[in-house]
Specification:
Keywords: Membrane, Transmembrane, Transmembrane helix. It comes from Bordetella genomosp. 12. 70% of the residues lie in helices and 4% in strands. The chain is mostly helical and 283 residues long. The protein has two domains: 59-151, no CATH class; 161-274, no CATH class. It has a two-stranded antiparallel sheet. Strands 3-4 form a two-stranded antiparallel ribbon. It is elongated, with a radius of gyration of 22 Å.
């Protein structure tokens, strides 16, 4: 006989009766899948889902949070940050030499443009990661409800402590992103590190932030660990594509919700296929 168990879902505040206990494949690579095809399918399905009026409306929340965050950060920290950067820049010998050379040949002062650029490079990504964190914690449940009702209705919710896991994941990813971004800013002076570091950190943010939230409501802790190990490459490919799209300013408006949709489709489809291949345990 199979022993049923009730699992409480922290987002919907409902108890779900889980399926019978199953055994996972013994190793994350117990079956093979076309990562490229799965990623492409996730982006295609996410595009269709994004066109739904509910998902178009959901775009506003993280965008408004990021916008308000940008305004507050610029208002509160722009002047003290630029003053501090000017003081620091005056002590950088290489910057001083380049600045003197540019002024001597009648071009422009490097410090005049460098300080505002560095200040913007510090403050704007912080507002961006705030918008992504808001999308992960508050918008992802709406995304999951939307896609699960339409395409994954038969997928049992077996997640535990979904809200706690989601909030903690958003906090540590945001802090690590901000710290890593600030510590690697000096390397931006070495071409093409500015582009590479920007793509890397945003790929990190998208992947680490959204891959957990995409499956935390539906997957059991054991299934979640298995999926993150087995589909690590696919999750990072999605994050890399989203990071490249993030280089285009118009994409900033829809990317938090659209990326959530992509991760939701990829994660739930992977979970659906995993459960289809599980073997029941006999008592």
């Amino acid at each position: 006989m199979w022993a049923n168990r009730s699992v409480f879902d922290y987002h919907t505040r409902h108890a779900f009766l889980s399926a019978a206990p199953m055994t996972l494949p013994s190793h994350p690579r117990a079956y093979s899948a076309s990562t490229g095809a799965d990623v492409a399918r996730a982006f295609k399905r996410a595009f269709v889902s994004q066109l739904h009026p509910g998902m178009l409306f959901a775009v506003l929340l993280p965008f408004l949070i990021a916008l308000v965050g940008s305004i507050l950060l610029l208002w509160l920290f722009w002047t003290p940050l630029t003053d501090w950067l000017r003081l620091e820049a005056s002590q950088w010998e290489m910057v001083n030499r380049v600045d003197e050379w540019l002024v001597a040949i009648g071009l422009f002062s490097l410090k005049l443009y460098l300080v505002p650029l560095v200040a913007a490079a510090i403050l704007l990504p912080i507002s961006g990661i705030l918008g992504l964190a808001i999308a992960a914690v508050f918008v992802m449940p709406l995304v999951l409800r939307h896609v699960s009702q339409r395409e994954y209705a038969g997928l049992t919710r077996m997640g535990r402590n979904a809200t706690v896991v989601s909030v903690w994941n958003a906090i540590w990813v945001s802090l690590l992103f901000a710290l890593g971004w600030l510590l690697t800013l000096p390397f931006w002076l070495v071409p093409p590190m500015a582009l590479l570091l920007s793509v890397f950190w945003w790929a990190f943010a998208f992947t680490r932030m959204l891959r957990v939230d995409a499956i935390v409501e539906h997957a059991s802790p054991q299934e979640r660990r298995w999926l993150l190990a087995r589909h690590n490459t696919g999750f990072w490919v999605i994050g890399l594509i989203c990071a490249l799209l993030n280089l285009l300013p118009p994409a900033w408006i829809i990317l938090p919700v659209y990326s959530s949709l992509v991760y939701a489709h990829y994660g739930l489809h992977s979970l659906q296929r995993l459960r289809a291949q599980q073997a029941p345990i006999d008592d």
